[in-house]
Amino acid sequence: QVQLVESGGGLVQPGGSLRLSCSASRRIFSINAMGWYRQAPGKERELVARITRVGSTNYADSVKGRFTISRDNAKNTVYLQMNSLQPEDTAVYYCHARKMERGRWNDYWGQGTQVTVSS
């Protein structure tokens, strides 16, 4: 079982930056993949960024070059650095973890943190 807690959301002007943090209750070295999803009003939840246990990453096309996912294994924390934020980035951002347990994939979600980009 993995518990996830997000922090770092808030209100920022267009062009500004935020860093989201996701703290896990288990060693993230043992988690197969972690990522960030977001959901805006009227839209489906979408994958923003993902990082695997071995360190490979991928990003949604809409955030490439602006967002960076990283991790600190010693702190069991994953980060999402968001630069050049746009109003279209406004959403609730959720931390996600996928872990193989007892021979089966399990998915875990944080409670979400609101990011609002507005003038």
Structure, described:
This protein has 119 residues and is mainly β. 0% of the residues lie in helices and 55% in strands. The chain has no helices and 11 strands. It has strands at 4-7, 10-12, 18-24, 33-39, 46-52, 57-59, 67-72, 77-82, 91-101, 104-109, 113-117. The strands form 2 sheets. Strands 2, 4, 5, 6, 9, 10 and 11 form a 7-stranded mixed sheet that branches. The N and C termini lie far apart (40 Å). The relative contact order is 0.31. The mean pLDDT is 95.
Extended strand count: 11
Which radius of gyration do the C-alpha atoms yield? 14 Å
Helical content stands at under 10%
Strand/helix succession: EEEEEEEEEEE
Distance between the termini: 40 Å
Mean pLDDT reading:
95
Helix/strand structural class: mainly beta
DSSP strand (E) fraction?
A: over 45%
> Can you tell me the residue ranges where pLDDT is under 50 for at least 5 consecutive residues?
none
Total helix count? 0
Largest sheet: 7 strands, mixed
Q: What is the 3D shape?
A: globular
Layout of strands and helices, then pairs:
Layout: E1 4-7, E2 10-12, E3 18-24, E4 33-39, E5 46-52, E6 57-59, E7 67-72, E8 77-82, E9 91-101, E10 104-109, E11 113-117
Parallel strand pairs: 2-11
Antiparallel strand pairs: 1-3, 3-8, 4-5, 4-9, 5-6, 7-8, 9-10, 9-11
